[in-house]
Design a protein that fits this description.
Two copies of one chain form a homodimer. The first copy, chain A, has 156 residues and is α+β, with helices and mostly antiparallel strands. Chain A folds into two domains: 91 residues, Winged helix-like DNA-binding domain superfamily/Winged helix DNA-binding domain (Arc Repressor Mutant, subunit A); 43 residues, Ferric-uptake regulator, C-terminal dimerisarion domain (Dna Ligase, domain 1), CATH 3.30.1490.190. The first copy, chain A, contains six helices and five strands, in the order ααααββββαβα. In chain A, the strands form two sheets. A three-stranded mixed beta sheet of chain A has the order 4-3-5. Chain A has a two-stranded antiparallel ribbon with strand order 1-2. In chain A, a hairpin with a 5-residue loop joins strand 3 and strand 4. The longest helix of chain A has 15 residues. Chain A is globular, with a radius of gyration of 18 Å. The termini of chain A are far apart. At the A-B interface, helix 5 and strand 5 of A face helix 5 and strand 5 of B. Strand 5 of chain A pairs antiparallel with strand 5 of chain B. The structure holds a DNA duplex (25 and 25 nucleotides).
Chain lengths: 156, 156
DNA sequence: CTCGGTGCAAAGCTTTTGCATCCGC
DNA sequence: GCGGATGCAAAAGCTTTGCACCGAG
């Protein structure tokens, strides 16, 4: 009984399949299981939570394989990695989800996604100015809730 | 024989002094020694390199104290922390050095600083739109050298 | 059949913590 | 002298590595 997947997933699987083929990497069931699990998540997640949620299901893979596979998925742009806090890396699916950036609330710890076209022009301007070809960026805004009723704010 | 320090350092020391006083924190020689070491560096550095360079000099402090003091220095905006790579946190002095962002070259691993006023307006727009008060940000551009002679590029 | 991939556990690295000692206030 | 700060080493937490076994091509 296959998991219900969003429509894009067929394409994603195909992309991964081709990538593995072109790079001469093996198409193991573990790799596809991890891809599937990643795309079933709608939020950011860390390695441990991915590992645990797979452990509960039919696919038990080792942490080492999770790390290895995520690296491959990042290489082929199907997954992106963020370093929000100080230690734990956060991952999220990347295919077909338009480029966005993150705002992190210091009160709630909530992560909100946003998109501003001006970032793209900054990329271009700065790249030209400094003589680099900018191919990616990461913008994080650190913010405070304006909502005074925010439960975390009250606890502080 | 005092180390030669840049002109701003007197002010910085004074700020730290007042901050410790206001917060009821103790003015230990270790804390000022770390402040001095931080401001003697002109680049980004990690905890280990700071610890080692102090170990060579008259001030030997423990790693725990380095971490503790850097946290205080960040609280009073005399130091800023960045998470460029995946693991090691990078620090840099922050007083009187105008707000800037970083471009990281994927070929050289060089870190270049830049400044673009448009980021500030993005902060404001997005904050208003999402109902948050944005108080800080981090923008990192990932780039490739246009210089074909870059030694790292040749090695790849 | 070969060799890359997996799983497991151990090791590695950065950072945090516990506790006895020390010293700023 | 009190209570916070330091130093040391041990522990914690995320990630990587080594090695034997497995299975995709």
């Amino acid at each position: 009984m296959p998991v219900v997947l969003n429509k894009k997933f067929g394409v994603v699987k195909q992309i991964f399949n081709s990538y593995l083929e072109n790079k001469g990497l093996r198409k193991t069931p573990e790799r596809f299981a991890i891809l599937e699990e990643v795309y079933s998540k709608d939020d950011h997640f860390d390695v441990e939570s991915l590992f645990l949620s797979m452990k509960k299901k039919k696919y038990q893979v080792s942490r080492a394989t999770v790390y290895n596979t995520l690296d491959i998925l990042i290489e082929c742009d199907l997954v992106s990695r963020h370093q929000f806090g100080q230690n734990i890396a956060q991952y999220e699916k990347a295919y077909g989800y338009k480029q966005h950036d993150h705002l992190i609330c210091d009160d709630c710890n909530k992560v909100v996604e946003f998109c501003d076209p001006r970032i793209h022009s900054i990329q271009q301007t700065v790249g030209e100015l400094l003589g680099y070809e900018v191919f990616n960026h990461s913008l994080i805004l650190y913010a405070a809730c304006k909502n005074e009723n925010c439960e975390n704010k009250i606890n502080k």
